[in-house]
Amino acid sequence: MNFKPKEYLSEAEIQDGLKKVIWDGLTAEAMTALTSGTFLVALALLLGANNFEIGILASLPLATNVLQLLSVWLVSKYHNRRAVAVICAYLARIPLIIVGLGIFVFNEFSFVFLATMLSMHYIFGSIAGPSWNSWMKDMIPEQMLGTYFSRRGRYTQILNVVLSIVIALILDLVKARAPQNELKVYACFFGAAGVVGLIGGYILSKVAEPYPHVSENNIVQVFKLPLRNQNFRRLLVFNSFWSFALNIANPFLSVFMLTALKLPLSYIIILNVISQIAGILTINIWGKFSDRYSNKSIISLAAPIYIVVLIGWCYVGVINQLAVNLAFLAIIHIAMGVANAGINLSITNIGLKLAPKRDAIVFLSVKNIVVAISSSLGPLAGGALAAFFLNKTLSININWATDKLSSNYHLLSLQQWSFLFIIAAFLALVSLNLLMKVKELGEVPRKIVRRIMRTSIRNNLRDYFLIGNIIDIHDELSAIVRKSRRRLNRNNQEAT
């Protein structure tokens, strides 16, 4: 197979490459849908994994991102990004097939074997990633980067949603009618994911690569540059602390719904789809305001929403009614999707904004590696905390008693999972103070952005949705209250 780069790509080669890269994205997304997320958590639980082991699974794809350094070294040494990306892609897909075969071959398929194979999968995937990114950046015309990747992302998201729902329904059906075959179904999913992934690697190998222009500087010295930049270093501290805080709780949300709430897998997937749709529908709004004002302001608006959502998880299941819990979970997932869209977009944008143009790739690679390390520690800490709080409960109640009446008001009851959500919310709140130290060109105070966003949303929705009328009613009531207070003050002054 000839992986040799070319000095010049013809228009036909570029157009052919654009088509193939979309198919490569679809195969990669199918592979991910079949082997990760809630499905992987469900498989781990089926194998008897404890909370700490689930934390290890969640940390693997994050921790292995450190090996992106090896990708940079390989490209700088061999000047062949296609060879690095394709060979590592093949090596990353083979362990998935081995997992599928292993479930059928071994009488007692173990969690350790699963974690080992997934480690190999994530390691080679991490090495392939930077090479692929750099390759695509040079192959795809700059003026169409945004349009092309948004179209590719739309296709992959649609495929992910459809596959996730179908797979969840299949698993729920098998679990209900033939639970003895549930593990074999996962084996088929992993085997299919590996085969589809190999097909994607073959498609990718047919995409032409322009000759790379790689820095010849010492790699260690190059990667020290971002750490010497004080403002970028502050961004690294905030982003790392924020990611660590969220990853204490996020990997265990599916565990909580599967084990504590006993929800079917299909319900959880549908809730995740609702969250994705909420993010897709609001990301343009966040993007418009981040361009017009500042990313820091968007983060300071969206992050508190996410913190409130984490606290809201503590109240899921308080009422023992499925319909009520599902409605509450739907609201929580919508808020999560909206907040995540703004936070992720703004953190990415502020990183791009603070990275010097000449060394942007180096700065962003260091940011990804540092954040990946801190993020990988979050699930491990979450798993350890879940084990520690397993049989512990903290209740907060208010009791009001008179001669004729005694009332007890339940405020909060923390149990195993609730402790994780509260701790994550507290640490996320602390991390926002670190954001204030980051300096961004063109910063606009949060209060101003919040007022402008509120006015803009109200004007856009007033004639179409009930929320506009609700805002108007709130404003009118506030005006009445203010007038009443002024009138009361005048009357008091006249009386005195």
Automatic annotation (TrEMBL):
<feature type="transmembrane region" description="Helical">
    <location>
        <begin position="111"/>
        <end position="132"/>
    </location>
</feature>
<feature type="transmembrane region" description="Helical">
    <location>
        <begin position="83"/>
        <end position="105"/>
    </location>
</feature>
<dbReference type="InterPro" id="IPR011701">
    <property type="entry name" value="MFS"/>
</dbReference>
<keyword id="KW-0472">Membrane</keyword>
<keyword id="KW-1133">Transmembrane helix</keyword>
<feature type="transmembrane region" description="Helical">
    <location>
        <begin position="183"/>
        <end position="204"/>
    </location>
</feature>
<feature type="transmembrane region" description="Helical">
    <location>
        <begin position="298"/>
        <end position="318"/>
    </location>
</feature>
<feature type="transmembrane region" description="Helical">
    <location>
        <begin position="21"/>
        <end position="48"/>
    </location>
</feature>
<feature type="transmembrane region" description="Helical">
    <location>
        <begin position="417"/>
        <end position="436"/>
    </location>
</feature>
<dbReference type="Pfam" id="PF07690">
    <property type="entry name" value="MFS_1"/>
</dbReference>
<dbReference type="InterPro" id="IPR052528">
    <property type="entry name" value="Sugar_transport-like"/>
</dbReference>
<feature type="transmembrane region" description="Helical">
    <location>
        <begin position="235"/>
        <end position="259"/>
    </location>
</feature>
<feature type="transmembrane region" description="Helical">
    <location>
        <begin position="54"/>
        <end position="76"/>
    </location>
</feature>
<feature type="transmembrane region" description="Helical">
    <location>
        <begin position="265"/>
        <end position="286"/>
    </location>
</feature>
<feature type="transmembrane region" description="Helical">
    <location>
        <begin position="324"/>
        <end position="347"/>
    </location>
</feature>
<dbReference type="InterPro" id="IPR020846">
    <property type="entry name" value="MFS_dom"/>
</dbReference>
<feature type="transmembrane region" description="Helical">
    <location>
        <begin position="368"/>
        <end position="390"/>
    </location>
</feature>
<feature type="domain" description="Major facilitator superfamily (MFS) profile">
    <location>
        <begin position="189"/>
        <end position="496"/>
    </location>
</feature>
<keyword id="KW-0812">Transmembrane</keyword>
<dbReference type="GO" id="GO:0022857">
    <property type="term" value="F:transmembrane transporter activity"/>
</dbReference>
<protein>
    <submittedName>
        <fullName>MFS transporter</fullName>
    </submittedName>
</protein>
<feature type="transmembrane region" description="Helical">
    <location>
        <begin position="153"/>
        <end position="171"/>
    </location>
</feature>
<dbReference type="InterPro" id="IPR036259">
    <property type="entry name" value="MFS_trans_sf"/>
</dbReference>
